[in-house]
Design goal:
Largest sheet: 2 strands, antiparallel
Order of helices and strands: HHHHHHHHHHHHEE
Shape: rod-shaped
Number of strands: 2
Strand order of the largest sheet: 1-2
Strand content: under 5%
Radius of gyration: 34 Å
Distance between the termini: 99 Å
Length: about 260
């Protein structure tokens, strides 16, 4: 007859593990000897070894009893199910490892490569990091909510940078705008350029004017991010609204007679 320490040693587990198996019902409590100590026989050793082998193979403890009691067909079927579960766990863990590795790359975690390439292009034009961060955050929100829209929008932005020097001028102005005070005279120049580009895009059919009821939570969030980006942002949007434009990411045309005027 064996003590609990001897049983654990023979089976290659710890005494604490043996006690845990008693608690969850995998290993029956033995009778105690005249001194009150647990006393195990060879059958307990064999069962404990079988439990340990199944647990070491990745079988969940909740299914160990099922496998111990199964006939050969049931055992094979259960092992197949467990193997499928382990394969799914491996795929999930591999995916997690990939994502963790991307953490070292910063923005790669939340943005597709086409956006990162576009932001690098803006840097190449001399756009400062303050504006890059603003644009990056907007792309992160858009990628999370509407990832399928990313590629066509980026393609159009790249086309405009290729063909339209006014777009390069706009980005250079926007780049320094976060540092302007609200009354900076350059805000009027920026508003002129934004309005010029909007009018041209609307006339060519490249830009659609939305209605107020079409505004969605994401658009409202993106517009709020623009408004909060710099002291001059509210002034820029106010000037554009005086000229009949409302919104930044989804534009609305304000009807005549409802355009706010300076007081």
């Amino acid at each position: 007859m064996l003590t609990i320490s001897q049983l654990a040693s023979y089976a290659g587990v710890t005494v604490r593990t043996v006690r845990h198996y008693h608690q969850i019902g995998l290993l029956a409590e033995p009778e105690r000897d005249h001194s009150g100590y647990r006393s195990y026989n060879t059958a307990a050793v064999v069962r404990l070894i079988r439990i340990r082998v199944l647990a070491d193979a990745g079988v969940p403890l909740a299914r160990v009893q099922e496998l111990l009691d199964a006939d050969p067909d049931e055992f094979a079927r259960a092992v197949g199910e467990i193997d499928e579960g382990l394969s799914a766990d491996i795929r999930r863990l591999q995916s997690h490892r990939t994502r963790i590795a991307q953490l070292a790359a910063g923005d790669h975690l939340a943005l597709p490569q086409v956006v990162l390439n576009y932001l690098d292009r803006l840097r190449g034009l001399g756009v400062g990091e303050a504006y890059i961060e603003l644009e990056r955050d907007a792309w992160i929100m858009l990628a999370a909510q509407d990832p399928l829209s990313i590629d066509p929008v980026i393609a159009e932005k790249n086309r405009l940078l290729d063909d339209d020097p006014d777009m390069t001028r706009l980005y250079r102005l926007l780049s320094s705008a976060p540092e302007w005070p609200p009354d900076d005279p350059r805000v009027v120049e920026l508003a002129d350029l934004v309005e010029h580009l909007r009018l041209r895009a609307v006339q060519s059919g490249e830009l659609q004017i939305g209605a107020a009821e079409q505004r969605d939570p994401l658009t409202a969030l993106l517009d709020a991010a623009m408004t909060e980006s710099a002291p001059v942002a509210r002034q820029l949007l106010a000037i554009l609204e005086q000229r009949g434009w409302r919104g930044w990411n989804r534009l609305e045309r304000i009807p005549e007679g409802r355009v706010p005027r300076d007081r």
